[in-house]
Structures are given as C-alpha cells and as structure tokens.
Design a protein that fits this description.
Layout (H helix, E strand, L loop, with lengths): L6 H12 L9 E4 L2 E4 L17 E6 L2 E5 L5 H14 L4 E5 L19 E4 H22 L13 E3 L2 E5 L2 E8 L6 E6 L4 E9 L11 H15 L6 E6 L7 H22 L4 H5 L5 H4 L4 H21 L1
Parallel strand pairs: 4-5, 5-6, 6-7, 11-12
Antiparallel strand pairs: 1-2, 2-3, 3-4, 8-9, 9-10, 10-11
Amino acid sequence: MKRWIGPALSLFAGLANAAGFDYALRAQPVAPDVYAFIGRSEDFTPANGGNIVNTGFIVAPGGVIVIDSGPSRRYGEQMRAAIAAVTPQPPVLVINTHHHPDHFLGNQAFADLPAGALAATRQGIAAEGNSYAENLFRLTGDWMKGTDVLAPTRTLVGGTSEIAGRRLRLLALAGHSGADLALYDEASGVLFAGDLVFNGRAPTTPHADLAHWLAALDRLEAITREPGFMQLVPGHGAVAGDASALRQTRAWLVWLQQSLHDAAAAGLDMNEVLARPLPPEFADLPVAASEYRRSVGHLFPAAEQAVLQ
C-alpha cells in the first residue's frame, strides 16, 4: 500500500501516535450475546483514524460471529481484543456487509478465520480494495500503517442459515452499494442493517442506486414490524429500538432524489445545485452539508441525463 503523508497529516498522526493509536473500542451490549462498537458521526479524519463505522459481534454457541471489521488492521486487532474481554468464545467467522473500506480493512486481524460476503462484495473488494486502502491512508494517516487488503473468501447468499449454532436471516439487498448484506439474528431480534441505515448522520452515496436503496429499506422495515424485533444496529449512528433511524434514512433519500430531479428539470447547473440550502429538517444533521455536496457530484449527472431522456 502506498504510504504518503503530508505536513497537515503529520501533525495529526503525531497526536495519534502520542495516544498509541487507541480507538477506545468498548463493546456496547445490544441484546443478550449481541454487541456493537459504535463509531463517531464524522467524516474520516486523522484525528478519528476512520472510527466512524459501527461494527459488531454475536456470541453464538459455536463461537463469535464478527460483523464487519473496521477501517484498518489496528482497528481489527483492537476489536478482537475487545471481543476477548467480553467472552472466552473464539471468533469463528467474519462477515463483511459491503465493499466500502471502513467495513473490511480490519480483516487482517482475523486472517486465521474464514471471511464471508455476498459475491459482488467479494468482487468489489478484490478489484478496488487497494485503491480504497490508499485513499483511507490519505484521509487518516498512520492509523492505517500495516494495513493490507484481505478479501473475503466465502460467498454468502440470502436466506436463513445456522451459523455457529445461531439462526441468522441473511438479506441480500442493494442500494447503498451494488451488494448490501443485512443480518437479522432471530434469537435476539437484532437487525444489523449495515450502511442501508444511517442514524443521526447523513447517508453516504458513492455507489448509490436510490430506487434500489428505498426498496431495501422497505424490506428492512418489514422486519421491524415482526413480533420478535428488538433493536436495529445501523451502519453509522446510535442503535435504535424502533424503525426511526430507517425512516430518517428514507426521508433523506426521498428528499435527495426529488431535489436533484427538480433541479435538473429546472435546468440548474451543478454549481447552482451545490449552492441550494438544506431543508430545515436536515440542516443540523451531522455531516449533512458535506454529504450533500458529495451526493450532488455522485448523482446529479444521472438526474440530468434522466430529464433529457
């Protein structure tokens, strides 16, 4: 992996080094035998080391099922130590929910285990993982030192499976990326939604298909209406005991889709779209302004094309 660090990153990296590159991971109980590590509602920075993501684990009869491994080798190693502080059960499987770097670059810390993902996620990591790792190094600095891409080798498919003695419903969806895996632990009623759901933070859209994403949210909301549902762990933001985070994500996406369509129909150029204010309901949402700007870059050209057609 390319290792370059400029003067500004050097300052922050030095601060991180003084703190020992400690992600301060603490397992948050979500339900009996189910835990999550909750990241910050921020952009990637050298100060946070990429700890903006939620990861988690389930203590099953046959061992620990790890759900996403974080943004770096250091994160994965600290995650594994934090799991060991909770249970003597060994990890037996890592599941990567999709191919964005904050969800799989900690796989190295679990190199002795199988790692599984949807087929398209495996392909995406194999094809783009190195460029993601280099970009994350530019964004977070020496937190990434020693991180190499370790792609999952096991293909997961949608359906209900018994994994390590735990009955999991695997939902093969799409929308945030080309392949998004959500997991519903039927024993606890905990739904790990991955980055299909953001709570208290504006969603990211680098590979988004908004129509597919909205359809995926409908599938997930149906689970929250089942009698056994208890908690939803989003890909980013606080754990929710209801569908409120899911609905907040949907509201942002519906507004974004309509706003970009209307701007294209009105003949606005990209600079004019970027200058438009956020609606009051989203104005105070963390990273909303920056994610809106990025989403315009990601999605507005397609909205213009759709209007022309």
